[in-house]
Amino acid sequence: MRTTKGGEARGDQEAPTPNSHEAIAATRQDLCNHVDAVAVELGLLLDNQKKLSARVTSTESELKDLRSSLKELEGQGQPLNAKVWELEHQVEEAEG
Description:
mainly alpha; 1 helix
């Protein structure tokens, strides 16, 4: 809406000028550039998410393997503890 010199609103609309077309084109280009930048960032975020997901899966697998190894060691540790107790008992008898 245009205004008169006195600041009153006029009902007729301003016809687009070459400058306004240029401004619209520049704004459109800015928006396209921004959308492209956001798309690149989104792609990077998705790549990082995939890498992190793979790393979590790998870490979970390693943890499962470590737990299995720990259970094996705990199972082996009981006979070893009994053997240590037996040797300590023999040493005490020999000293006593």
